[in-house]
Amino acid sequence: MASATPPVEPAIAVPQPTKGKKPPYPFYLGGLAATIAASITHPLDLTKVRLQASGEKRMIESMRKTLRTAGVRGLFDGISGTWLRQMSYSLCRFWAYDESKKLLKAGPDSPPWMLATAGVMAGSIAGVVGNPGEVVMVRLQGDFAKPPEKRFNYKHCFDALFRIVREEGASSLMRGVGPNVIRSVLMNSSQLASYDFFKSQLLKTNYFQDNAICHFTASFAAGTVATTVCSPADVLKSRIMNASGPGSSSTLNVIRASLAKEGAMFVFKGWVPSWTRLQPTTILIFLTLEQLRRIVDWQRGTL
Q1: How many CB atoms lie within 10 A of CB 223?
Q2: C-alpha to C-alpha distance for 113 and 123, rounded to whole angstroms
């Protein structure tokens, strides 16, 4: 008689965790990354604004002049304005860029025109939201380059905000908003969109992984593209915002005066310091942003 075999229980399938889509990152990460990067590169940004606003020609000579007259601390004049600008303009542009990509259903492999469109949408919003901070930053940075009798002598960014409203009216906070929005559109459609594009293209090769080397390479390329695209609007924005008096806020008046004195190439004045400033800033922004995202992923357990 054959021995009875015990019944075999069916194996219970253990469901494997599926790797779903990551939840959105906190909206402020872009602004925080930009603030950290701008604090490090502030001396270069300060020199660029002074070159564009004052008519000085050489970056190194301008920095030496600052060191001679104000010391190392002078290289960080107006840094509170930089912080105000980054936590308004940059925070808004990164948030709006991500939201615009969602609206357009754009992903990592989307065509460049779709990413650029998201950048245009983000830049249009951020250019308006960040304009008061932009005015304050430019004035704080460019003040020292003026003769003593023409300086604003603001103590910090909030003093500048209150005095501008009290002495010139709230509308002065929107001074140069046209060129600023144009520059913001150009910046976001070139810098943010090209970073996403270059990063996705690099990851398609066999030479790059999603690490700091890939982020550095993509941000280096994005910084060069953004500097070239944004230079004309950047020069106009700095000159208009740094001006005061009747008729000084007219974009056409500034263009006519600059063309008469310096010729058509004035729109690329300060390109080298702009590239020298924007390149490390772009690299630092995206390297910092990617690391902040990794920290968030680690906290969520999705790293």
Answers
A1: 24
A2: 15
As to burial, measured by CB atoms within 10 angstroms (0-12 exposed, 13-18 middle, 19+ buried), residue 301 is: exposed
User: pLDDT tens-digit profile of 148-188?
Assistant: 888 888 999 999 999 999 999 999 999 989 888 988 999 99
What are the structure tokens assigned to 4, written together? 């009875």
Specify the amino acid at residue 70. A
Distance CA 297, CA 289 (A): 12
- SS3 assignment, position 249: coil
Q: At CA 14, angle to CA 9 and CA 17, rounded to 5? A: 175
Q: Which two tokens stand for residue 144?
A: 């020292």
* 142 neighbors 54 (Cβ within 8 angstroms): yes
**Percent of the chain whose predicted confidence (pLDDT) is above 90:** 49
- Residue 10: half-sphere exposure toward Cβ, Cα within 13 Å: 3
pLDDT in tens, 189-230: 999 999 999 999 999 998 999 999 999 999 999 998 998 888
| Tokens 């615009």 -> residue | 100
Q: Are 164 and 136 in contact (CB under 8 A)?
A: yes
Within a 10 A sphere around the Cβ of 178, how many other Cβ atoms? 17
